[in-house]
Amino acid sequence: MEQLRLTTLKAARGLKIRKTVALLSDGSIKTLAGYPRIPTWTRQVHTLDHDIDALAAFLTELSTDPTACLVTGEPCGSIPLAAPARRRKNAEPGIPATLAECAAPWLPIDLDGIPITGRLDPLDPEPAIAEVVAMLGEPFASASYGWQLTAQAAPFADQLRLRLYFLLDRAITNEDRRRWALGLNAHVGIKLTDPAIYSAAQPIYTAAPLFAHGKDPFPGRCGVVYGEEELLRWGSVPIHETHAQGAYAGSEWAGRTPRGITELLESIGDHPGGLGFHEQIRDAVWRMVADRWTEDRIIGTIRATIGSANQSRHKRSEIERYVSLRYLRESIKGADRRIKIAANAPRATQTLRHSAPIPLEQAQRQIRDAVWRWLRGEGPAKLVLATTVGSGKSTLAADVIREEPPDDRTLLWAFPTHAQGEEILAKLNANGDPLAPLAVRIEGRVREDAELPKCHRPHLVEAVKAAGLARHTKSIACQRDGEKCPHLADCAYYRQFRTGERVRLVPHALLPLE
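The chain above was modelled as a monomer; its predicted structure follows.
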Protein backbone atom coordinates (compact mmCIF):
# COMPACT_ATOMS: atom_id res chain seq x y z
CA MET A 1 0.00 0.00 0.00
CA GLU A 2 2.05 2.91 -1.29
CA GLN A 3 -0.35 5.85 -1.64
CA LEU A 4 -3.19 7.48 0.27
CA ARG A 5 -5.98 9.45 -1.41
CA LEU A 6 -7.63 12.21 0.63
CA THR A 7 -10.46 14.53 -0.39
CA THR A 8 -10.67 18.16 0.68
CA LEU A 9 -13.44 20.70 0.20
CA LYS A 10 -12.77 24.37 -0.44
CA ALA A 11 -15.42 26.99 0.28
CA ALA A 12 -16.53 28.79 -2.86
CA ARG A 13 -15.86 32.52 -3.15
CA GLY A 14 -13.06 32.26 -0.59
CA LEU A 15 -15.39 32.09 2.42
CA LYS A 16 -13.61 31.31 5.70
CA ILE A 17 -14.52 28.12 7.55
CA ARG A 18 -12.71 28.64 10.80
CA LYS A 19 -13.81 29.76 14.23
CA THR A 20 -13.06 33.15 15.71
CA VAL A 21 -12.23 32.77 19.39
CA ALA A 22 -10.90 34.73 22.34
CA LEU A 23 -8.66 33.66 25.21
CA LEU A 24 -10.34 34.85 28.42
CA SER A 25 -8.58 35.93 31.60
CA ASP A 26 -9.44 32.63 33.32
CA GLY A 27 -7.65 30.70 30.57
CA SER A 28 -10.78 29.40 28.87
CA ILE A 29 -11.61 29.79 25.18
CA LYS A 30 -14.74 31.67 24.13
CA THR A 31 -16.15 31.24 20.63
CA LEU A 32 -17.01 34.60 19.09
CA ALA A 33 -18.03 33.26 15.67
CA GLY A 34 -18.67 29.64 14.75
CA TYR A 35 -18.43 27.86 11.44
CA PRO A 36 -20.57 29.61 8.81
CA ARG A 37 -23.03 27.88 6.53
CA ILE A 38 -21.29 27.35 3.18
CA PRO A 39 -23.67 26.95 0.22
CA THR A 40 -21.21 25.59 -2.37
CA TRP A 41 -17.77 24.01 -2.42
CA THR A 42 -15.11 22.86 -4.84
CA ARG A 43 -13.55 19.41 -4.38
CA GLN A 44 -9.98 18.25 -4.66
CA VAL A 45 -8.31 14.84 -4.37
CA HIS A 46 -4.79 14.65 -2.91
CA THR A 47 -2.47 11.68 -3.36
CA LEU A 48 0.06 11.19 -0.56
CA ASP A 49 2.72 8.67 0.28
CA HIS A 50 1.28 6.13 2.70
CA ASP A 51 3.45 7.12 5.67
CA ILE A 52 2.80 9.13 8.81
CA ASP A 53 5.25 11.93 7.95
CA ALA A 54 3.45 12.68 4.69
CA LEU A 55 0.08 12.70 6.46
CA ALA A 56 1.34 14.96 9.26
CA ALA A 57 2.89 17.41 6.79
CA PHE A 58 -0.36 17.50 4.80
CA LEU A 59 -2.43 18.23 7.93
CA THR A 60 -0.06 20.98 9.04
CA GLU A 61 -0.29 22.67 5.66
CA LEU A 62 -4.07 22.26 5.59
CA SER A 63 -4.38 23.92 9.00
CA THR A 64 -3.06 27.17 7.47
CA ASP A 65 -5.86 27.29 4.86
CA PRO A 66 -8.98 28.87 6.43
CA THR A 67 -11.09 28.00 3.38
CA ALA A 68 -10.54 24.21 3.34
CA CYS A 69 -11.56 21.12 5.29
CA LEU A 70 -11.33 17.32 5.02
CA VAL A 71 -14.02 14.73 4.33
CA THR A 72 -13.92 10.94 4.44
CA GLY A 73 -15.80 10.54 1.15
CA GLU A 74 -14.64 10.77 -2.45
CA PRO A 75 -15.97 12.94 -5.31
CA CYS A 76 -18.74 11.54 -7.47
CA GLY A 77 -21.20 12.77 -10.08
CA SER A 78 -20.80 14.66 -13.32
CA ILE A 79 -20.03 18.10 -11.86
CA PRO A 80 -16.35 19.05 -12.45
CA LEU A 81 -14.28 19.09 -9.28
CA ALA A 82 -13.32 22.75 -9.75
CA ALA A 83 -16.96 23.82 -10.25
CA PRO A 84 -18.80 25.04 -7.13
CA ALA A 85 -21.29 22.40 -6.00
CA ARG A 86 -23.37 21.59 -2.97
CA ARG A 87 -22.00 19.19 -0.37
CA ARG A 88 -24.31 16.21 -0.79
CA LYS A 89 -24.07 12.50 -0.17
CA ASN A 90 -27.61 11.67 -1.27
CA ALA A 91 -29.04 12.81 -4.59
CA GLU A 92 -32.46 14.43 -4.88
CA PRO A 93 -34.50 15.33 -7.96
CA GLY A 94 -32.49 17.98 -9.77
CA ILE A 95 -29.69 17.94 -7.17
CA PRO A 96 -26.94 15.37 -7.79
CA ALA A 97 -24.79 13.76 -5.13
CA THR A 98 -21.25 15.11 -5.06
CA LEU A 99 -19.57 12.89 -2.45
CA ALA A 100 -19.75 9.13 -2.06
CA GLU A 101 -18.74 6.70 0.65
CA CYS A 102 -15.45 4.94 0.02
CA ALA A 103 -12.97 2.65 1.72
CA ALA A 104 -9.60 4.14 2.68
CA PRO A 105 -6.69 3.13 4.95
CA TRP A 106 -6.90 5.97 7.48
CA LEU A 107 -8.84 6.69 10.67
CA PRO A 108 -9.61 10.22 11.91
CA ILE A 109 -10.79 10.38 15.53
CA ASP A 110 -12.62 13.35 17.06
CA LEU A 111 -12.19 13.70 20.84
CA ASP A 112 -13.84 16.62 22.61
CA GLY A 113 -13.64 17.50 26.28
CA ILE A 114 -11.79 14.37 27.44
CA PRO A 115 -10.63 14.70 31.09
CA ILE A 116 -6.89 14.30 31.74
CA THR A 117 -5.01 13.92 35.01
CA GLY A 118 -2.58 16.77 34.36
CA ARG A 119 -2.77 19.99 32.38
CA LEU A 120 -2.38 20.77 28.70
CA ASP A 121 1.02 22.45 28.39
CA PRO A 122 0.86 24.78 25.35
CA LEU A 123 4.62 24.37 24.83
CA ASP A 124 4.57 20.57 25.17
CA PRO A 125 1.08 19.16 24.54
CA GLU A 126 2.15 15.63 23.59
CA PRO A 127 2.24 14.12 27.13
CA ALA A 128 -1.43 15.08 27.59
CA ILE A 129 -2.25 13.76 24.12
CA ALA A 130 -0.49 10.47 24.90
CA GLU A 131 -2.71 10.09 27.98
CA VAL A 132 -5.82 10.30 25.83
CA VAL A 133 -4.40 7.90 23.23
CA ALA A 134 -3.79 5.42 26.05
CA MET A 135 -7.55 5.53 26.77
CA LEU A 136 -8.12 4.06 23.31
CA GLY A 137 -6.09 1.02 24.33
CA GLU A 138 -4.06 -1.22 22.07
CA PRO A 139 -3.14 -1.26 19.25
CA PHE A 140 -3.62 2.54 19.22
CA ALA A 141 -1.10 3.17 22.01
CA SER A 142 1.64 1.43 20.00
CA ALA A 143 0.94 3.02 16.61
CA SER A 144 2.19 6.27 15.09
CA TYR A 145 -0.35 9.07 14.68
CA GLY A 146 -0.81 12.67 13.69
CA TRP A 147 -2.57 15.06 16.07
CA GLN A 148 -4.26 18.43 15.83
CA LEU A 149 -5.69 20.58 18.62
CA THR A 150 -9.15 21.92 17.80
CA ALA A 151 -10.33 25.52 18.11
CA GLN A 152 -11.71 25.03 21.64
CA ALA A 153 -8.46 23.66 23.08
CA ALA A 154 -7.40 25.84 26.02
CA PRO A 155 -3.90 26.20 27.49
CA PHE A 156 -3.37 24.47 30.86
CA ALA A 157 -6.86 22.96 30.68
CA ASP A 158 -7.68 19.68 32.40
CA GLN A 159 -9.66 18.54 29.37
CA LEU A 160 -8.40 17.80 25.89
CA ARG A 161 -10.04 18.73 22.59
CA LEU A 162 -8.25 17.33 19.57
CA ARG A 163 -8.33 15.09 16.52
CA LEU A 164 -6.08 12.12 15.94
CA TYR A 165 -5.17 10.62 12.57
CA PHE A 166 -3.98 7.01 12.20
CA LEU A 167 -2.78 5.25 9.07
CA LEU A 168 -4.07 1.69 8.71
CA ASP A 169 -2.76 -1.51 7.21
CA ARG A 170 -6.00 -1.95 5.27
CA ALA A 171 -8.82 0.13 3.81
CA ILE A 172 -11.96 0.48 5.94
CA THR A 173 -15.34 2.14 5.41
CA ASN A 174 -17.24 4.67 7.47
CA GLU A 175 -19.49 1.81 8.57
CA ASP A 176 -16.40 0.19 10.08
CA ARG A 177 -15.32 3.43 11.73
CA ARG A 178 -18.77 4.12 13.14
CA ARG A 179 -19.18 0.58 14.48
CA TRP A 180 -15.83 0.87 16.24
CA ALA A 181 -16.58 4.30 17.74
CA LEU A 182 -20.06 3.45 18.98
CA GLY A 183 -18.82 0.18 20.43
CA LEU A 184 -15.92 1.88 22.21
CA ASN A 185 -18.20 4.55 23.69
CA ALA A 186 -20.63 1.90 24.92
CA HIS A 187 -17.75 -0.14 26.35
CA VAL A 188 -16.22 2.71 28.38
CA GLY A 189 -19.59 4.23 29.32
CA ILE A 190 -18.88 7.78 28.13
CA LYS A 191 -18.73 9.63 24.83
CA LEU A 192 -15.01 9.19 24.23
CA THR A 193 -15.10 9.57 20.43
CA ASP A 194 -17.57 11.41 18.20
CA PRO A 195 -18.79 9.27 15.26
CA ALA A 196 -20.39 12.27 13.52
CA ILE A 197 -17.38 12.72 11.23
CA TYR A 198 -17.84 9.24 9.77
CA SER A 199 -20.06 10.26 6.89
CA ALA A 200 -18.88 10.96 3.34
CA ALA A 201 -19.99 14.60 3.25
CA GLN A 202 -19.38 15.57 6.89
CA PRO A 203 -16.63 18.22 7.18
CA ILE A 204 -13.62 17.57 9.38
CA TYR A 205 -12.60 21.14 10.18
CA THR A 206 -8.83 21.56 10.05
CA ALA A 207 -8.18 25.33 9.93
CA ALA A 208 -6.54 26.88 12.98
CA PRO A 209 -8.84 29.36 14.76
CA LEU A 210 -8.52 33.12 14.46
CA PHE A 211 -7.83 34.81 17.82
CA ALA A 212 -9.66 38.11 18.00
CA HIS A 213 -7.44 39.51 20.76
CA GLY A 214 -3.80 38.51 20.93
CA LYS A 215 -1.91 35.51 19.59
CA ASP A 216 -2.67 31.82 19.58
CA PRO A 217 -1.38 30.45 22.93
CA PHE A 218 -0.27 27.25 21.17
CA PRO A 219 2.92 27.71 19.09
CA GLY A 220 2.03 24.49 17.28
CA ARG A 221 -1.41 22.95 16.85
CA CYS A 222 -0.32 19.96 14.76
CA GLY A 223 2.28 17.29 15.25
CA VAL A 224 3.22 13.65 14.87
CA VAL A 225 4.03 10.96 17.44
CA TYR A 226 6.03 7.91 16.38
CA GLY A 227 5.02 4.58 17.83
CA GLU A 228 6.42 1.08 17.66
CA GLU A 229 4.30 0.50 14.54
CA GLU A 230 3.83 3.05 11.78
CA LEU A 231 0.52 1.53 10.67
CA LEU A 232 -2.39 0.68 12.93
CA ARG A 233 -3.29 -2.99 12.48
CA TRP A 234 -7.05 -2.82 12.06
CA GLY A 235 -7.48 -6.54 12.58
CA SER A 236 -6.16 -6.10 16.14
CA VAL A 237 -8.62 -3.31 17.02
CA PRO A 238 -11.35 -4.61 19.38
CA ILE A 239 -14.87 -3.96 18.09
CA HIS A 240 -17.27 -3.91 21.04
CA GLU A 241 -20.96 -4.63 20.73
CA THR A 242 -23.18 -1.58 21.14
CA HIS A 243 -25.42 -2.79 23.93
CA ALA A 244 -26.02 0.67 25.40
CA GLN A 245 -27.30 2.99 22.70
CA GLY A 246 -27.42 5.95 25.07
CA ALA A 247 -23.79 5.68 26.08
CA TYR A 248 -22.74 7.45 22.87
CA ALA A 249 -25.05 10.38 23.60
CA GLY A 250 -22.92 11.42 26.53
CA SER A 251 -25.69 10.86 29.10
CA GLU A 252 -23.76 8.10 30.91
CA TRP A 253 -26.22 5.31 30.10
CA ALA A 254 -24.47 2.04 30.84
CA GLY A 255 -26.85 -0.25 29.00
CA ARG A 256 -29.39 -0.81 31.73
CA THR A 257 -32.81 0.65 32.46
CA PRO A 258 -33.41 0.93 36.22
CA ARG A 259 -36.71 -0.54 37.37
CA GLY A 260 -38.77 1.00 40.17
CA ILE A 261 -38.52 4.35 41.91
CA THR A 262 -35.75 3.25 44.27
CA GLU A 263 -33.51 2.12 41.43
CA LEU A 264 -34.20 5.32 39.50
CA LEU A 265 -33.28 7.50 42.48
CA GLU A 266 -30.10 5.50 43.06
CA SER A 267 -29.09 6.08 39.43
CA ILE A 268 -29.20 9.89 39.76
CA GLY A 269 -25.71 11.40 39.91
CA ASP A 270 -22.18 11.18 38.58
CA HIS A 271 -20.98 8.37 40.86
CA PRO A 272 -19.66 5.11 39.34
CA GLY A 273 -22.71 3.48 37.81
CA GLY A 274 -24.69 6.72 38.02
CA LEU A 275 -26.56 7.80 34.92
CA GLY A 276 -26.56 11.59 35.27
CA PHE A 277 -29.45 13.86 36.20
CA HIS A 278 -31.94 15.13 33.63
CA GLU A 279 -33.13 11.85 32.11
CA GLN A 280 -33.16 10.04 35.45
CA ILE A 281 -35.05 12.85 37.21
CA ARG A 282 -37.63 12.85 34.42
CA ASP A 283 -38.13 9.09 34.63
CA ALA A 284 -38.29 9.11 38.43
CA VAL A 285 -40.88 11.91 38.42
CA TRP A 286 -42.93 10.01 35.84
CA ARG A 287 -43.00 6.92 38.08
CA MET A 288 -43.88 9.00 41.14
CA VAL A 289 -46.76 10.74 39.37
CA ALA A 290 -48.01 7.38 38.09
CA ASP A 291 -47.94 6.10 41.69
CA ARG A 292 -49.94 9.16 42.82
CA TRP A 293 -47.26 10.83 44.93
CA THR A 294 -48.11 14.37 46.06
CA GLU A 295 -46.25 17.29 44.52
CA ASP A 296 -44.55 18.19 47.82
CA ARG A 297 -43.36 14.62 48.31
CA ILE A 298 -41.97 14.43 44.76
CA ILE A 299 -40.13 17.75 45.03
CA GLY A 300 -38.73 16.97 48.47
CA THR A 301 -37.51 13.52 47.43
CA ILE A 302 -35.87 14.70 44.20
CA ARG A 303 -34.17 17.66 45.91
CA ALA A 304 -32.82 15.45 48.69
CA THR A 305 -31.54 12.93 46.15
CA ILE A 306 -29.79 15.61 44.07
CA GLY A 307 -28.30 17.22 47.18
CA SER A 308 -26.63 13.99 48.26
CA ALA A 309 -25.61 12.87 44.76
CA ASN A 310 -22.14 13.06 43.21
CA GLN A 311 -22.17 16.21 41.03
CA SER A 312 -18.58 16.13 39.79
CA ARG A 313 -19.39 16.15 36.06
CA HIS A 314 -22.08 18.82 36.08
CA LYS A 315 -21.86 22.59 36.41
CA ARG A 316 -23.30 24.36 39.43
CA SER A 317 -25.77 26.18 37.17
CA GLU A 318 -27.09 22.83 35.91
CA ILE A 319 -27.61 21.50 39.45
CA GLU A 320 -29.38 24.72 40.46
CA ARG A 321 -31.72 24.27 37.51
CA TYR A 322 -32.52 20.67 38.46
CA VAL A 323 -33.51 21.61 42.03
CA SER A 324 -35.44 24.74 41.04
CA LEU A 325 -39.16 24.79 41.74
CA ARG A 326 -39.92 25.72 38.13
CA TYR A 327 -37.98 22.78 36.68
CA LEU A 328 -39.51 20.25 39.06
CA ARG A 329 -43.07 21.52 38.65
CA GLU A 330 -42.71 21.46 34.86
CA SER A 331 -41.41 17.88 35.11
CA ILE A 332 -44.44 16.93 37.21
CA LYS A 333 -46.86 18.63 34.82
CA GLY A 334 -45.19 16.98 31.84
CA ALA A 335 -45.41 13.54 33.45
CA ASP A 336 -49.05 14.08 34.37
CA ARG A 337 -49.83 15.23 30.83
CA ARG A 338 -48.13 12.21 29.23
CA ILE A 339 -49.98 9.82 31.52
CA LYS A 340 -53.34 11.42 30.71
CA ILE A 341 -52.62 11.41 26.98
CA ALA A 342 -51.76 7.73 27.14
CA ALA A 343 -54.87 6.94 29.18
CA ASN A 344 -57.25 8.89 26.94
CA ALA A 345 -55.70 8.09 23.58
CA PRO A 346 -58.32 6.79 21.14
CA ARG A 347 -58.03 3.13 20.33
CA ALA A 348 -58.07 2.24 16.64
CA THR A 349 -59.86 -0.82 15.37
CA GLN A 350 -57.33 -3.61 15.25
CA THR A 351 -56.62 -4.54 11.64
CA LEU A 352 -53.27 -6.24 12.23
CA ARG A 353 -52.12 -8.52 14.95
CA HIS A 354 -49.86 -6.86 17.48
CA SER A 355 -46.25 -7.89 17.28
CA ALA A 356 -44.82 -9.74 20.22
CA PRO A 357 -43.47 -7.48 23.01
CA ILE A 358 -39.75 -6.82 22.82
CA PRO A 359 -37.30 -5.62 25.50
CA LEU A 360 -36.93 -1.86 25.84
CA GLU A 361 -33.22 -1.95 24.94
CA GLN A 362 -34.02 -3.80 21.71
CA ALA A 363 -36.76 -1.29 20.87
CA GLN A 364 -34.36 1.60 21.49
CA ARG A 365 -31.77 0.05 19.20
CA GLN A 366 -34.41 -0.31 16.47
CA ILE A 367 -35.54 3.31 16.94
CA ARG A 368 -31.97 4.57 16.75
CA ASP A 369 -31.20 2.50 13.66
CA ALA A 370 -34.42 3.58 11.90
CA VAL A 371 -33.77 7.29 12.48
CA TRP A 372 -30.13 6.99 11.44
CA ARG A 373 -31.01 5.19 8.17
CA TRP A 374 -33.76 7.71 7.45
CA LEU A 375 -31.37 10.66 7.91
CA ARG A 376 -29.00 9.03 5.43
CA GLY A 377 -31.77 8.83 2.83
CA GLU A 378 -32.27 5.11 3.19
CA GLY A 379 -35.63 3.44 3.63
CA PRO A 380 -39.06 5.11 3.26
CA ALA A 381 -39.59 8.78 2.46
CA LYS A 382 -41.55 9.27 5.69
CA LEU A 383 -40.68 7.78 9.06
CA VAL A 384 -43.24 7.22 11.81
CA LEU A 385 -42.14 6.15 15.29
CA ALA A 386 -45.01 4.74 17.35
CA THR A 387 -43.86 3.36 20.68
CA THR A 388 -45.01 3.30 24.28
CA VAL A 389 -44.82 6.55 26.25
CA GLY A 390 -41.46 6.93 27.98
CA SER A 391 -39.52 4.67 25.63
CA GLY A 392 -37.08 7.48 24.86
CA LYS A 393 -37.79 7.96 21.16
CA SER A 394 -37.34 11.76 21.33
CA THR A 395 -34.05 11.46 23.19
CA LEU A 396 -32.77 8.77 20.85
CA ALA A 397 -33.80 10.73 17.76
CA ALA A 398 -32.07 13.85 19.11
CA ASP A 399 -28.92 11.84 19.81
CA VAL A 400 -28.80 10.49 16.26
CA ILE A 401 -29.47 13.91 14.70
CA ARG A 402 -26.61 15.40 16.74
CA GLU A 403 -24.33 12.59 15.55
CA GLU A 404 -25.18 13.00 11.88
CA PRO A 405 -26.98 16.30 11.19
CA PRO A 406 -28.70 16.66 7.81
CA ASP A 407 -26.19 17.96 5.27
CA ASP A 408 -28.09 20.37 3.02
CA ARG A 409 -31.60 19.64 4.16
CA THR A 410 -33.75 21.31 6.79
CA LEU A 411 -35.36 18.88 9.20
CA LEU A 412 -38.78 19.83 10.58
CA TRP A 413 -39.60 18.44 14.04
CA ALA A 414 -43.15 19.06 15.30
CA PHE A 415 -43.92 19.04 19.03
CA PRO A 416 -47.29 19.15 20.86
CA THR A 417 -46.46 21.71 23.58
CA HIS A 418 -43.98 24.55 24.02
CA ALA A 419 -42.56 22.88 27.14
CA GLN A 420 -41.75 19.77 25.13
CA GLY A 421 -40.30 21.95 22.39
CA GLU A 422 -37.91 23.55 24.87
CA GLU A 423 -36.88 20.11 26.12
CA ILE A 424 -36.20 18.82 22.60
CA LEU A 425 -34.32 22.03 21.72
CA ALA A 426 -32.04 21.58 24.73
CA LYS A 427 -31.29 17.99 23.72
CA LEU A 428 -30.45 18.90 20.12
CA ASN A 429 -28.18 21.80 21.10
CA ALA A 430 -26.53 20.01 24.04
CA ASN A 431 -22.72 20.39 24.10
CA GLY A 432 -22.84 22.32 20.82
CA ASP A 433 -21.58 25.75 19.83
CA PRO A 434 -24.00 28.32 21.35
CA LEU A 435 -23.21 30.73 18.50
CA ALA A 436 -23.97 28.13 15.83
CA PRO A 437 -26.76 25.97 17.25
CA LEU A 438 -28.00 22.90 15.42
CA ALA A 439 -31.69 23.59 16.11
CA VAL A 440 -34.03 26.54 16.52
CA ARG A 441 -37.59 26.62 17.89
CA ILE A 442 -40.03 28.37 15.56
CA GLU A 443 -42.70 30.40 17.34
CA GLY A 444 -46.10 31.35 15.97
CA ARG A 445 -47.10 34.84 14.90
CA VAL A 446 -49.23 35.44 18.00
CA ARG A 447 -46.82 33.89 20.50
CA GLU A 448 -46.46 36.44 23.34
CA ASP A 449 -43.02 38.00 23.49
CA ALA A 450 -42.78 41.45 25.02
CA GLU A 451 -39.19 42.03 23.87
CA LEU A 452 -39.59 40.87 20.28
CA PRO A 453 -43.17 40.32 19.08
CA LYS A 454 -43.30 37.95 16.13
CA CYS A 455 -46.09 39.88 14.39
CA HIS A 456 -47.24 43.50 14.61
CA ARG A 457 -50.76 42.54 13.51
CA PRO A 458 -51.62 39.78 16.00
CA HIS A 459 -55.30 40.70 16.22
CA LEU A 460 -55.70 40.39 12.44
CA VAL A 461 -53.91 37.03 12.51
CA GLU A 462 -56.26 35.81 15.26
CA ALA A 463 -59.25 36.92 13.20
CA VAL A 464 -57.96 35.06 10.15
CA LYS A 465 -57.53 31.89 12.23
CA ALA A 466 -60.99 32.26 13.78
CA ALA A 467 -62.46 32.49 10.28
CA GLY A 468 -60.87 29.16 9.36
CA LEU A 469 -58.45 30.79 6.90
CA ALA A 470 -55.18 30.00 8.67
CA ARG A 471 -53.59 28.70 5.46
CA HIS A 472 -54.05 32.14 3.90
CA THR A 473 -52.57 34.20 6.74
CA LYS A 474 -49.71 35.54 4.63
CA SER A 475 -51.89 36.72 1.76
CA ILE A 476 -54.39 38.38 4.11
CA ALA A 477 -52.33 39.75 7.00
CA CYS A 478 -48.95 40.31 5.33
CA GLN A 479 -49.88 41.44 1.82
CA ARG A 480 -53.38 42.48 0.89
CA ASP A 481 -54.63 44.24 -2.24
CA GLY A 482 -51.04 44.87 -3.32
CA GLU A 483 -50.11 46.62 -0.06
CA LYS A 484 -47.44 44.97 2.05
CA CYS A 485 -47.28 45.08 5.81
CA PRO A 486 -44.74 47.82 6.68
CA HIS A 487 -42.92 45.34 8.94
CA LEU A 488 -42.70 42.54 6.36
CA ALA A 489 -39.09 43.24 5.29
CA ASP A 490 -37.85 42.74 8.84
CA CYS A 491 -40.62 40.48 10.13
CA ALA A 492 -39.46 38.59 13.22
CA TYR A 493 -41.74 35.67 12.35
CA TYR A 494 -40.29 35.10 8.87
CA ARG A 495 -36.78 35.86 10.08
CA GLN A 496 -36.93 32.60 12.01
CA PHE A 497 -36.98 30.69 8.71
CA ARG A 498 -33.92 32.46 7.29
CA THR A 499 -31.40 31.33 9.91
CA GLY A 500 -28.81 28.61 9.31
CA GLU A 501 -30.03 26.02 11.80
CA ARG A 502 -30.52 22.62 10.20
CA VAL A 503 -33.34 21.48 12.51
CA ARG A 504 -36.47 23.57 13.01
CA LEU A 505 -38.83 22.79 15.87
CA VAL A 506 -42.42 23.83 15.33
CA PRO A 507 -45.58 23.34 17.40
CA HIS A 508 -48.25 21.14 15.87
CA ALA A 509 -50.44 24.21 15.40
CA LEU A 510 -48.01 25.65 12.84
CA LEU A 511 -48.03 22.63 10.53
CA PRO A 512 -50.99 23.76 8.37
CA LEU A 513 -49.78 27.36 8.09
CA GLU A 514 -47.88 29.03 5.25
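Residues 405-510 form one domain.
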